[in-house]
Amino acid sequence: MEKRNLFEELRNNEYPGRGIVIGRSGDGKKAVAAYFIMGRSVNSRNRIFVEEGQGIRTQAYDPSKLEDPSLIIYAPVRVLGNRTIVTNGDQTDSIFMGLQKKLTFEQSLRSRSFEPDGPNYTPRISGILRVEDGEYAYALSILKSHNGDPACCERHMFSYDWPAAGEGHFLHTYLHDGNPLPSFEGEPKWVSIEGEIDAFTQKVWESLSEENKVSLFVRYIDIASGAWETRIVNKNR
User: Fold this and answer.
1) How far, in Å, CA of 232 to CA of 212, rounded?
2) pLDDT tens, residue by residue, 54-88
3) Which of 77, 107, 70 is nearest to 93 (CA)?
4) What's the CA gap between 194 and 165, in Å, rounded?
5) pLDDT per residue over 84-119, tens digit each?
6) For 180-190, what is the mean pLDDT?
């Protein structure tokens, strides 16, 4: 697989939908996680990220314009001990509760499938980072319909032990814009991770489509200590 430039991937795709990037900083010291949301409808664009506990939650920017909250209001990021969960829906809670019951990341997602928003059947994408005692590993998952057929849910899991410095993986919901929206295909894209948290956040945000981008979350976790820094960027402010 060819390693891709994350910023070019974003600049060259008008509508990847929602995306998760997980990897390791160039100096090898930080675990990196990013999550962004985009929107085409008024309802989807009427959102911001707000901090909630150790994670974040989506929230309506203008509550009077909120229509259907079922698939747009959720907690994309939650933390359980040394594990950080990042997803594009309320399956964050399924993973969190599953881990509390000693289930694995994969087992926790067995009760979920793609989103019930036909004809798009938006994939549920999820990631988990584990940072403990100077060690770091992560996993990604996508639950998607089989070529747009809601009768079959494809469940793909990808695990990465001790990721290399300056590298990561990028998973997003849609291949590109369309009607219906075509689901992501293949394994997560191997991408470069460049810059400290502020530079990385700025470049990701600037690379997203100005018309469609809504919010961005970035977290750098110190692998040695477990301490983290977070950045949130909202188009609505």
Assistant:
1) 17
2) 999 999 999 999 988 888 999 999 999 999 999 99
3) 77
4) 10
5) 999 999 999 999 999 999 999 999 999 999 999 999
6) 97
Rounded to 5°, the CA angle 156-157-163 comes to 140
CB atoms within 10 A of CB 227: 10
Residue extents of the structural domains in the chain: 6-234
Give me 50's structure tokens: 């707000």
Return the CATH class of domain 6-234. alpha beta
CB 154 within 8 A of CB 146: yes
Burial zone of 79 (CB within 10 Å; 0-12 exposed, 13-18 middle, 19+ buried): middle
Tell me the per-residue pLDDT of 14-29, one tens digit each, with 9 for 90 and over: 999 999 999 999 999 9
Q: Distance between CA atoms of 100 and 37, rounded to whole angstroms?
A: 27
Q: How far apart are CA 81 and CA 15, in angstroms?
A: 34
Q: How far apart are CA 196 and CA 236, in angstroms?
A: 25
Q: Please report the beta strands in the chain, taking only residues with DSSP state E, as ranges in sequence order.
A: 19-24, 30-38, 47-52, 55-60, 77-80, 83-87, 124-132, 135-146, 149-161, 167-172, 189-192, 213-222, 228-234
